[in-house]
């Protein structure tokens, strides 16, 4: 009986030691995983920083090129625009727009109506152009 008690104590001690070893292994794996995540975050941060620096350098070089071009080719205002001419042009444009908006379609033709209208002609060809604009070629 004493041997059974001693064996049970040994088994419990070995089980406890195994459990502690497993906890230690889990802690090591977690620390390795955390360090890998930190290293990955540092690499991503370095990459983002280098890309930002490249973009800043590119923007600075483009600005330098623009400044050099502007220095070599200064802009000059030749004449002040005529305000009355602009008013006349816009008035004419407004009149044209009003006339165009007042026009109503008299009749809308579909493909069959067009075929019937030109049925006595030699040939009729329909074309679909850009923006769904239909074109018809009729030969007499």
Polypeptide structure, described:
The chain is mostly helical and 140 residues long. It has helices spanning 2-72, 83-102, 111-117, and strands spanning 123-128, 134-139. A two-stranded antiparallel ribbon has the order 1-2. Strand 1 (123-128) and strand 2 (134-139) form a beta hairpin. The model has no long low-confidence stretch (mean pLDDT 87).
Structural class based on helices, strands and sheet pairing? mainly alpha
Please tell me how large the radius of gyration is: 43 Å
CA distance, first residue to last residue: 122 Å
- How many beta strands in the DSSP annotation? 2
What level of helicity do the residues show?
A: over 70%
Q: What profile does the largest beta sheet have?
A: 2 strands, antiparallel
**Can you tell me the overall shape?**
elongated
Uncertain segments of ≥5 residues (pLDDT<50)? none
Q: In percent terms, what proportion of residues is strand?
A: 5-15%
Q: Number of helical runs?
A: 3
Going across the biggest sheet, name each strand in turn. 1-2
Order of helices and strands: HHHEE
Mean pLDDT: 87
Task: List the main descriptive attributes of the protein structure presented here.
140 residues, mainly alpha, two-stranded antiparallel ribbon, 70% helix, 9% strand
